[in-house]
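Dear support,

I submitted the protein below through the web form. The confirmation email said the job was done, but the results page showed an empty box. After a refresh the structure appeared. I'm attaching both so you can tell me whether what I see now is the final result or a partial one.
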Amino acid sequence: MINKFKKIFGNGIAYGIYYFLLCHLIGFIGGMSSKSVLKVSIPVALITLIINGLIYSRFTKREKLLKAITFQETDIVNSKLEGIANHQVEDDLISGKLCITDDELIFICSNKKEYRWSLTSFASFHFYPTIFNKGGEFVIKDQNGRRIMFEVDYIKSWKKLLS
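What the results page shows now:
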């Protein structure tokens, strides 16, 4: 239950701060006193945080479903790190499970479709951590210049293995 609250807070905090500052700005421009501005800004920020935290989940499928995805036995033996992730295919964000082995990066979608990339085919890795939680995204460019994007939890672990 505590993890659920942390996720709601993490997903909605940016919106809460934004609306808090926006209400503050509008209140001061309108000539309201600081006390009156706070009476309006704080409830608006909290409501916005909760609503957006509930609406905007990082993953497009339930985490329980994504954690149930399994890899082949040979991949599990060679696995260095695995976790739930989003993968951007063209303009669609697909949720699934990502695994890195000694020589491959493997992504299995929630509909069991599997993608595999050889680690030697990648030219560069760029990591972008998020501000409010331990997750982030990383973008890989292959030797053909094609971009492959993943959003994961615990970005530092992925960076440590891929860099």
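Response: this is the final, complete result; the empty box was a page-load delay. The longest helix spans residues 2-29.
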